[in-house]
Design brief:
Oligomer: single chain
Helix content: 25-40%
Number of strands: 6
Strand content: 25-35%
Distance between the termini: 31 Å
Number of helices: 4
Order of helices and strands: EHEHEEHEHE
Largest sheet: 6 strands, mixed
Amino acid sequence: MDAIVYVSNTGFTAKYAKLLTLETDIPNYTLEEAKKNLKKGSEIVFLGWIMGGVISGFKKAKRRYKVKCVAGVGMDSPKNENGEYLAKKNKIKNIPITQTQKY
């Protein structure tokens, strides 16, 4: 894995990315920083905040990098608490997905 790449709105996603870096020693970058620091096609873990079921920044990240894992961070309805809803809404196939949320 080359990097953890994230898009954060309120800072929670950034905190999760930094925690993952502490546990894995994989560097983290915002999506904008990643464009300057990573080659196209680099393998990444992507974290993005959720708005209306859409994982912010995922489409851009998917076009530029090989996304190996996705995490959506944000508030959502309890009925959507598994990753299947986000996978369908964001057209994520064959990539592990998880959702961290608050009610």
